[in-house]
Structure formats: structure tokens, C-alpha cells
């Protein structure tokens, strides 16, 4: 027996013992990755997602006697996780994480503001932590494909939504729950959920990155684009790198405030910082179901290779439409979560 939120998995029934520790561990293994991804979408933070999925399982273990087995175990866990996220958002200083400051125009020339620790920056998500998207079948109400609903631009766009609207959209348009099921989880009426969905969809419709995407699956061209991108860094070929950008490309570099729009502006900025290091090495990773690269930089003074930045690429028509480079001090902290070593291997 199933519902839109997944197969019904009886944990316990009236008059029967609740699940034991071994059964509960099997449940956590089965759902950990998808719940962590859900928490990441809600929060925009890999670290917070880790903490909240742990909190979800702790709460579920303590409340296991309250689950009677007549619903979906998956839905029960999503209910705990979603409410944990909503409570966490209420408790923190910012309800959303950003890739760029609202209303800040694109920059021109060099970056002078320095890293900004007081802003909450959207973090990337390692592909190694994703559930098996090939087997991820959302319910019939879903509007977004599984591959597209993890894109960095999509996660950035849904951060624009108030928390309850964000939760409703993720449950219904990403996971494919019905409005009735979402109302049972979030509280309120089905009409209130439908109203929240309409407002959320209207907000995303005003932002290109939040509209229903057209790209469905990674293509072979993306692999070639990634290879050319890595070679440009390693060969000290700035012109070759800029040539990979679309004319209207966008470039962000958290935790710096500055961002750039258009190939000439991006090329001019990269040219102003390109010579800061004696060389670069690039290692391919995956982030948000997009091509990504970890770049190590060779110090000019000490000739030591160090983690420098994590690059997330948004391809379009064989070119780079958007480039997000997480630079120091944030960038190096992302290497360990992405399984990248503290120094590169031999070339």
C-alpha cells in the first residue's frame, strides 16, 4: 500500500511492540539521504542539513511509540524533518541564505569589499550525498524533475520564499505530495496550502532561476565543457576560460558581495586576480547535480599547494551560463565535505 509520500512501512501497531533499535536503524539508512537533501533545500546549508537530519532521527526515536503504523513511515519522518527546519529557521537571524545581496547591482572592475561573514551564504551540496536520483520517483503532483530540484540556482530561488511557502512548495512541487497531505503536515486547511503554493509559484515565476526548468539530464557536452574548464585553469589560460562563458553569463563568488554579469565584466575581474598565485590544479567533483571543480592554488612565496575554491558550473548550450566560485575563506572549508584532500595529488 502506498500514498504520494511513499510506501507504507508499518513500524508498530496498537497492541504490538514498537520497532526495536535494529529496525529503526534500517529505517534511518533507507531515508537518511533524501531527508538530508530535504533539510538542505529548506535551509540552504549543508552543515545545518547534517544537524537537522540527526535531530529528526533523534526525535523520531523518542516518539516511535506514537507512530501506529497506519501511515507512511517516510511521511512521518518528513513531517518531523520539515517542522524541525521551520523551527530552526525561526531561531536563526536570517530566514534565508543568498548567492547575492538583494537589490545589489552587478559589479564592475576589481573586488574591494572583502569577504562578508555577517551574511548567510547559500552552500553547495555534494553529489555524493544525493539520494539515487535515477530511482527517485516523486508523486504525481510534482512540477520539478529530481535533477532540476537540486540545482544551485533553484535552491537559491526557493530561499526567496517565506519558510511556510518554501515547505509547501517542496512538499508538493518537488516531492509530489497532495495539498491534503501537506496540510496534514504543516497544519491549516487544504485551501491555505493551495494559496501558499500559488504565492510561491508566482514569486518563483518572477525569477528566471526559479521557473520550471527545461534541462533534464546531464549531457556528454557538459563533460567536455568541464574538461575544457579544468584545462584552462591548469594551463594558465585565462582567455580560454573566458571563451567558455556565454555572453550573458553570471558570476558569483561567496563570501564576497561582488557579483558580475556578462563575459566582458567577468573576464576583466578574473584578469585582475588571475596572477595572485603561481599555478592552479583542478579536481572534478559534483555539486547540486551540476559539473563542479575543486581548485588548488600554488603560493608564490612558499610554493605550497592549498585548497582555494570550489566552482559550481551551470551549463547551457555548450557554454557556461552561470559560474559560482566559493572563494576563501569559505571555499577551502568545503573541500572536506566534498571528499577533496587537503592537497592535490601529482599532476
TrEMBL record:
Enzyme Commission numbers on file: 2.7.7.6
Keywords: Nucleotidyltransferase, Sigma factor, Transcription, Transcription regulation, Transferase
Superkingdom of origin: Bacteria
RNA polymerase sigma-70 region domain residues: 30-93
InterPro entries: NTF2-like_dom_sf, RNA_pol_sigma-70-like, RNA_pol_sigma-70_dom, RNA_pol_sigma-G_actinobac, RNA_pol_sigma70_r2, RNA_pol_sigma70_r4_t2, RNA_pol_sigma_r2, RNA_pol_sigma_r3/r4-like
Pfam families attached to this UniProt entry: Sigma70_r2 (PF04542), Sigma70_r4_2 (PF08281), SnoaL_2 (PF12680)
Record-level Gene Ontology MF annotations: DNA-directed RNA polymerase activity
Family assignment from sequence similarity: Belongs to the sigma-70 factor family. ECF subfamily.
Name of the protein described by the UniProt record: RNA polymerase subunit sigma-70
Organism of origin: Mesorhizobium australafricanum
